[in-house]
Design goal:
Helix content: 55-70%
Order of helices and strands: HHEEHHH
Number of domains: 2
Length: 103
């Protein structure tokens, strides 16, 4: 299995110290990814940081729904916010709830 440090090292054209590799790996969750999903009968593209995609998949799995199903529910409940922002806020609220804090 390739670790984030190995990936950071492979992407580097020169030899980095382990501390530099670790620093690069710590930024990987902020990389933006665009995914296309079918939501409410239409195809839409959503751009989120890797960390939010990972958390959203974990939440969907814990709730026993598909990723598209969870995003559709978030989409239906949002009040005018753009969908990417609504997803980020939802993930944050779920995290706060899991820690016992009020949403």
């Amino acid at each position: 299995m390739t670790s984030a440090i190995d990936v950071a090292h492979q992407d580097s054209p020169h030899q980095d110290s382990p501390q530099q590799d670790l620093a690069k790996a710590s930024y990987a969750p902020t990389r933006m990814r665009k995914h296309s999903l079918d939501i409410a009968g239409h195809r839409t593209s959503i751009s989120l940081e890797d960390a939010f995609w990972d958390a959203l998949r974990e939440i969907a799995e814990a709730q026993g729904v598909s990723l598209a199903g969870l995003v559709a529910r978030i989409d239906a409940d949002r009040d005018g916010a753009n969908l990417s922002s609504a997803i980020r806020v939802y993930v944050l609220q779920q995290r706060r709830i899991s820690l016992g804090a009020p949403p």
